Amino acid sequence: MSTESLKSAYVSTKDFKxxxxxxxxxxxxxxxxxxxxxxxxxxxxxxxxxWLFSNCFPNTLDTTVKFRIANGKPDTxxxxxxxxxxxxxxxxxxxxxxxxxxxxxxxxxxxxxGVINRQTECILLDPYANAFNYGxxxxxxxxxxxxxxxxxxxxxxxLDSLCYPVRLAHxxxxxxxxxxxxxxxxxxxxxxxxxxxxQQQRKDWHGPYKFQRVTATYTDTAPGGxxxxxxxxxxLIVSLFRPSDDATIFPFLVPSNYFAVKSxxxxxxxxxxxFVDREFAGNCASLADxxxxxxxxxxxxxxxxxxxxxxxxxxxxGDKLFMDDASIPSLLSLPYLDCISQSDPxxxxxxxxxxxxxxxxxxxxxxxxxxxxxxxxxxxxxPMGIMMRAFTTSNDDExxxxxxxxxxxxxxxxxxHESFDENDPKKFTRSWFAWANTLFGDLLIKLYNEKPYxxx
Length: 456
What we know:
The structure is a single chain. This protein has a domain at 57-360: Glycosyltransferase (Alpha/alpha barrel). The chain is 41% helix and 11% strand. It has 14 helices and 15 strands. The strands form six sheets. The chain has a three-stranded antiparallel beta sheet with strand order 3-4-5. A three-stranded antiparallel beta sheet has the order 6-9-10. The protein has a three-stranded antiparallel beta sheet with strand order 13-14-15. Helix 5 (106-125) crosses helix 7 (184-199), helix 8 (254-273) packs antiparallel against helix 9 (278-298) and helix 11 runs antiparallel to helix 12 (396-409). The radius of gyration is 21 Å and the shape is globular.
């Protein structure tokens, strides 16, 4: 099969100089990561792509990590980049590509265990919060109409926020076999997660959480007096906000419910194998079964053009929203998160819809094409959406097309961004967005291991 050659509108005739901070200014260093950079870079033929990889893959370690030993345990606080706060979602994905290297270097292993420990404390502080400060430093959102506490940065209930710590803990355990960070605090936090999931099924009442913000941006506040639009309690779990931090319209966010099923099954396995706690393992499994059955009943629907597909949001009344948001979990990303098979016919139908003009947030212009988000506005393509397109296909030409668009999207900066204008990649949002950088590195490592000829 022939593939389009890699090229970029921003290739320079001079050498690409590293955009990494000087060694003494990096927030964490890992020889295992440096060796991975050397190994993978040697297999990349395009100089700009190799330059981007060497800048992006270590960006989380270079710029966002606060690591220490506290009370005899590793503790790692990970900021997102240009926002000085830690999201449960972002922090998991920022270190996720390093998990596979954890057995090669003890201090890297401690760093990841420290993220798990810090996430445990965040969940115990408030399972409904999405973002946390390093300490009780105050927040620009302290005046939100919700139960803000010292240590919280923002308190938007996002179902996926409680799935990501499970993903990290499970991946760490499967890779290293280490269970030292799964102490009584961690077990308590995991039980809080399941309790919160059950509360937000809203079978008897709307639960203890509500959120409003005085704002002119409608996606930054929840309707319905802070409880969201109404739902029918069909077994799905409410998420008042999306992974983009925007408010949902119909509160059963479909990709996040798929993610919750995966997380519950992972928790069930961990509590069964590590602790031989069959009661809680069974509790997790039964909730996963219930949510999965409800997804089959309410979240696979007929589209007039694409057949049986997954909507982005539903409410149990029969209302459904056909779109996708590039922040992860998205519908497009479900195979990446191992929530659905890439070959599943419903997923393939959904994917065809998502990557078409019938998806209102699929944009196409002179600079590229891809899924965006209401969060960044119209005509803004998210590099993470392009990355998910490459992660979820086996087609060489499609992957190469994605790589070309990602190279061009950096606009000579050496890094990935939150979004870029469909016609001009120099018009981008978030110059320092560590999750997008690390995810880009993870994509190239996947290709290096599985399709090295595409990089050569």
